[in-house]
């Protein structure tokens, strides 16, 4: 889906790594939450509470997920899942536009 309707947008930005990663929180009527963001090239490590589904809208990166032993390349239109209460690493090669969906289990 290319747009979201009937949502609430939190005005305050989520800013990480000295502004190299930013996002805005989108809240849905059913209680679900997503973030829409941009990552500049660099290496980052994130922690998550809830499981996440990361959709890469444009850009290119590598991800190192918990329990894996190799980096996985991700490009435009691809996605990856991150388990809850874990950490994952990213090597962002190009300006990357993403949508993160928080999964309620």
Taking the alpha carbons of the first and last residues, their distance comes to: 22 Å
SS element count, helices: 0
Order of helices and strands: EEEEEEEEEEE
Number of domains: 1
Q: What is the CATH top level name?
A: Mainly Beta
Largest sheet, described in full?
7 strands, antiparallel
What number is the mean pLDDT?
96
What is the 3D shape? globular
Radius of gyration: 13 Å
Number of DSSP E strands: 11
- CATH architecture label: Sandwich
Question: What percent of the residues sit in helical stretches (DSSP H or I)?
Answer: under 10%
CATH-assigned fold name: Jelly Rolls
Structural class: mainly beta
Unreliable runs: none
Strand content: over 45%
Look at the structure and name the CATH superfamily. Jelly Rolls
Account of the 3D structure:
With 105 residues, the protein is mainly beta. The chain has a single domain, classed as Jelly Rolls (Sandwich). The chain has strands at residues 7-9, 14-16, 21-28, 33-39, 42-48, 52-58, 60-64, 72-75, 79-82, 86-92, 96-102. Strands 1, 2, 3, 4, 6, 9 and 11 form a 7-stranded antiparallel β-sheet that branches. It has a 4-stranded antiparallel β-sheet with strand order 5-10-7-8, with no helix packed on it. A hairpin with a 7-residue loop joins strand 7 and strand 8. The radius of gyration is 13 Å and the shape is globular.
């Amino acid at each position: 889906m290319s747009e979201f309707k009937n949502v609430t947008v939190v005005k305050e930005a989520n800013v990480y790594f000295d502004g190299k990663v930013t996002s805005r929180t989108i809240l849905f009527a059913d209680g679900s939450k997503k973030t829409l963001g941009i990552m500049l090239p660099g290496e980052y490590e994130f922690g998550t509470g809830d499981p996440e589904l990361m959709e890469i809208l444009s850009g290119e990166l590598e991800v190192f997920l918990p329990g894996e032993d190799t980096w996985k390349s991700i490009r435009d239109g691809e996605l990856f899942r991150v388990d809850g209460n874990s950490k994952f690493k990213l090597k962002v090669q190009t300006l990357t536009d993403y949508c993160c969906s928080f999964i309620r289990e």
